[in-house]
Amino acid sequence: MDVDEGDVLNYDVVVIGGGPAGSVAARFAAKGGADVLVLEKRQEIGSPIRCAEGVSLSWLEELELEDIDSSTSRVMKGAILYSPAGHELKITEKLAGDEVGVVLERDHFDKDMARLAVKEGADYMVKTSAVGLIKEDGIVKGVEAKNFGKRFEVRAELVIGADGYESQVGRWAGIYESLKPKDVMTCFQYRLTGIDMDPDYTHFYMGSDAPGGYVWVFPKNEDTANVGLGIQFSRLNGSKTPKDYLDEFIESHEDYKDGEPVDMVAGAVAVSHPPEKVTAPGILLVGDASRIVDPMTGGGIVNGLKQGKIAGEFAVEALNEGRFDEEIMQRYEERWRDKLADKLWRNYMAKETAMQLDDETFDKIIDALSEIDLETVTIGAILEGVKKKYPELVEEFEDMI
What we know:
By secondary structure, the chain is α/β, with parallel strands linked by helices. The chain is 29% helix and 28% strand.
């Protein structure tokens, strides 16, 4: 789509950000009859990749998809958790949660989500940035945008902010404040090839190798994997960077030390509790912009997909009623919170405690869990399992069992 300086485009819905959550919101809004435009600031949907690429498949039916084979790199059998002393806990894919199931080719996946939105009638503009909100009488009525240096306007009844971590759209709308350092995970990842691992499992290393976080290994094929870590920002004192921590981890593990990096990526992710609100009149947030990343795992794709569908369907409802005031926006708040907020809050409280555990405690936890048959992997089940061998570790968490 070509635009000239000063053009005004008119749509029902404009989505800022062409990632999975934004594309799913666009898809379901367009499916319901809305005229939708997606603005993506990068020149290519899905690139560069800033993700470990692991997801479950628990959401396929909900999003009316049969499979994602075209964007799947490898199917996992489960996950293996390692304590600092080397204790191992192997769990099946069924129990492992939203970060285990398949390892994606994320750039393909994002493009597939965009393709499905286009199939329903959504328009896309790449290399196009939102540079401000248009407001009338306190209600957001669209965005100011820039495409190859040309400024133009997109007038819309509803703006959906899907512009990721520390969303500019969210700040422009006054929806939330900056994150606290303890609620930010700084990440660094290599794609290593020529390594030795079990390629049928994702691998997670707990403890001081990644203070306040963990190291992950997500296989892409038999000898290549995304190997990365997340570290709580408040744990970084300037003496070492996340890259330094990862380099030290790799060098100390025989399975990985001879691997060669074929790419690398750095970034940050919010691991906070959900904000008090993710809406204002005429605008709502989805995905990482709305801070619905799982605080325990740092994974946000699945939550973003589920929330994106809710956003798209809500957009159609609001358009049909011709209302975008604070009262109707509350419906969206209630619906996504009903689906996601309880687990997010529970995992946030668990994260707050887990961040303080030392290596000895991680050893005891993995040791205890490796001796029982977990039927489900929830905070309550984990605490119940640890209690059987190390009751002193869970005394303060009795109310979570």
